[in-house]
Specification:
7 helices; mainly alpha; about 180 residues
Length: about 180
């Protein structure tokens, strides 16, 4: 008699344990992602970049974010007047599925991921105040310089990879 009553209770507890394990795994992933983002934010002021290096990299970051913005507008021409900036796209993403899908498609087309966009935005926000961004034709094509600066001076791996991708996006865009 007791075994019959214990069996269903055991199954119920087992199902609850599996559900708890799944929730903990999702929570663990979210914490790992947050930790990576925190490391990027923490490493930005620590990286030993000269003002000219910051300006060079800021140019690539700015141009990459502009490319993302332009791709979204190409995909959503009917919303172009309500999406004048990259920030406006980022604000509307959670509320508008079309904007979110267009943003994700633009990132994929440029060879970027969501994490790259977050890192590039973090760089833009933290380093923009000290930049003298004036992209000119003679300045374009400094891919080797930018790659060397990134590899030499940027310690955080996520920041390094995202900046290298930004340089690649801009240089690839100039070639086409």
């Amino acid at each position: 008699m007791r075994l019959r009553t214990i069996g269903p209770r055991f199954e119920e507890l087992n199902a609850a344990a599996r559900a708890l394990e799944e929730r903990l795994a999702r929570h663990r992933q979210a914490l790992a992602k947050k930790d990576q983002q925190d490391q990027v934010w923490d490493s930005l002021p620590e990286d030993s970049l000269s003002p000219s290096d910051v300006s060079l990299l800021f140019g690539y970051v700015s141009d990459t974010l502009h490319c993302c913005h332009a791709r979204v507008l190409d995909l959503l021409p009917d919303l172009s007047s309500s999406l004048p900036t990259t920030a406006s796209i980022l604000r509307r993403r959670p509320k508008n599925r079309r904007v979110n899908d267009a943003w994700n498609a633009a990132l994929r087309k440029l060879g970027l991921e969501e994490g790259d966009a977050k890192v590039l935005c973090a760089f833009f926000v933290t380093q923009g105040y000290q930049c003298d961004y004036k992209r000119t034709e003679k300045e374009s094509g400094q891919q080797d310089d930018a790659n060397a600066v990134i590899r030499r001076s940027v310690g955080n791996q996520a920041l390094k990879e995202s900046l290298l991708k930004a340089v690649e996006v801009v240089e690839r865009g100039k070639a086409s």
